[in-house]
Automatic annotation (TrEMBL):
<keyword id="KW-0249">Electron transport</keyword>
<dbReference type="InterPro" id="IPR050597">
    <property type="entry name" value="Cytochrome_c_Oxidase_Subunit"/>
</dbReference>
<keyword id="KW-0732">Signal</keyword>
<dbReference type="GO" id="GO:0020037">
    <property type="term" value="F:heme binding"/>
</dbReference>
<keyword id="KW-0408">Iron</keyword>
<dbReference type="GO" id="GO:0046872">
    <property type="term" value="F:metal ion binding"/>
</dbReference>
<dbReference type="InterPro" id="IPR036909">
    <property type="entry name" value="Cyt_c-like_dom_sf"/>
</dbReference>
<feature type="domain" description="Cytochrome c">
    <location>
        <begin position="20"/>
        <end position="105"/>
    </location>
</feature>
<dbReference type="InterPro" id="IPR009056">
    <property type="entry name" value="Cyt_c-like_dom"/>
</dbReference>
<keyword id="KW-0479">Metal-binding</keyword>
<dbReference type="Pfam" id="PF00034">
    <property type="entry name" value="Cytochrom_C"/>
</dbReference>
<feature type="signal peptide">
    <location>
        <begin position="1"/>
        <end position="19"/>
    </location>
</feature>
<keyword id="KW-0349">Heme</keyword>
<keyword id="KW-0813">Transport</keyword>
<dbReference type="GO" id="GO:0009055">
    <property type="term" value="F:electron transfer activity"/>
</dbReference>
<protein>
    <submittedName>
        <fullName>Cytochrome c553</fullName>
    </submittedName>
</protein>
């Protein structure tokens, strides 16, 4: 039974990710002023402890946003600033933001 539920959830996430609206994500990033902390190009955050978002995997970014929205609960993330910013976002908003940020040229490097 758990495998069926997991398959349905993963299928729904994949469908939502494939239907992501990058232009809508760009508008959301501007509206929610993400660049004020993560930098105008999302590669140069104002504080070195803040993550670079440009070029990051879209599904990772979406998962991180959902974790901030969950907060201190299971599989959540605790950051008062991010928690406040993600509360008004819908699941669709988070998918679109992840798709937009993931589509940007990034400076992230994967070691082989």
């Amino acid at each position: 039974m758990q495998r069926i539920v997991l398959s349905l959830v993963l299928g729904a996430l994949a469908a939502s990710a494939s239907a992501a609206d990058i232009a809508r994500g760009a508008a959301l990033a501007k509206t929610h002023n993400c660049a004020s902390c993560h930098g105008a190009d999302f590669n140069k955050p104002i504080d070195p402890s803040y993550p670079k978002l440009a070029g990051q995997h879209a599904d990772y970014l979406t998962t991180a946003l959902r974790a901030y929205k969950r907060g201190a609960g299971p599989n959540g993330r605790v950051n008062p600033i991010m928690a406040a910013l993600v509360q008004p976002l819908s699941n669709r908003d988070m998918v679109d933001l992840g798709a937009y940020l993931g589509s940007l040229p990034g400076q992230l490097v994967t070691k082989k």
